[in-house]
Amino acid sequence: MSEIKSARRVFEILELFDRLRRPLALGEVTAALRYPASSGSALLKSMVALGYLEHDHASRTYFPTMRIAALGSWVQDALVGDLAPLMQSLRRATGETVILATESDLFAQYIHLVHAEQPLQFAVQPGTRRPLAQSGMGWLFLSAHTPDEIEKLRRRINAAQRSKITREELLRRTTAVRAQGYAFSKGAVSRGAGIIAMLLPTPRHGRRLALGVAGSLARLEPNEEKIVRALRRVIARAA
Known about the structure:
By secondary structure, the chain is of the alpha+beta class.
């Protein structure tokens, strides 16, 4: 097993625990991730030896240790920090799910969410990624780049996926976002759902951040002006 494959599998195992949130047996891990039993067993034993998983011999199950919880605890504070209460106020003002996202390579990645009482029709969790060239958050982040930077990213995106994005299409999307000061994607990722999003003016720890209000288009479209005003108020307070 190569070092790169081993590293990827470690994170896949941790993400599986994050999704299921319960002790898992070897067979459950290997079945869910389609690993050979021998390599799955060796990897879990290594993670136990390093202190990242604990093994219960009676139930023959594995579970993350507090070392895992401590590893990333500072990241939440560094990137979210004082934005968390502002996101709560935005949720109260709009009644919709509020998303904090950052630009991550060729994706927009959600790093913190405040869910509405009426949840989204599709599963969205921290860590969810959306393609830069094919999502509202993505177009928003691209709008902060120069045309030359956008073209370089477009070429990388096209090299990494089957469907190709034209230069004209991407410039049209980003120009429209730049002109109105926010992105409003309608059904770009999930049919009948959308997001209205704005960039925060100041990066944090060198990362561009954006706030978005996501929900059903049946609610977002008639309330677009109200949501945009609420976003602007919250972003002004954050700045």
